[in-house]
Amino acid sequence: MQALDALGEPVRRRILEIIADTEVAAGVIADALRDELGLSQPGCSQHLKVLRESGLLQMRAVGTSRLYRIDAERLADAAAWFDQFNRFGDQWRQPLDALETELARGRRERRRSTGDAAGGDPPRAARTSCAAGP
Known about the structure:
By secondary structure, the protein is mainly alpha-helical. 58% of the residues lie in helices and 10% in strands. It has a 3-stranded antiparallel β-sheet.
């Protein structure tokens, strides 16, 4: 799997944010994703596997723990691909921000029309499933 394919999934990007500049045990990552997104441990393991197979993560076994860290060189390759679009500046960001606003407005209107007392979107984990696979 290509690095950019792996980065297309928000949960995987969140894993990279959690790991950032350090080495983190799989259990710590799973706990953070469970608390933030309601993602199960097997779901977390699947995302870690995809990131590992794409070359974005390296894993090191220490006893029964699996420690993950970002492969900086591989991530730099992906970042370099994005850099080619810097020449466009903020031209592409503004339409995306407008789209995000319109989507939020539509969700808000749907909640009002259905009488959703909770007033919130479904948990992110309910919207992000790894059942479809990498």
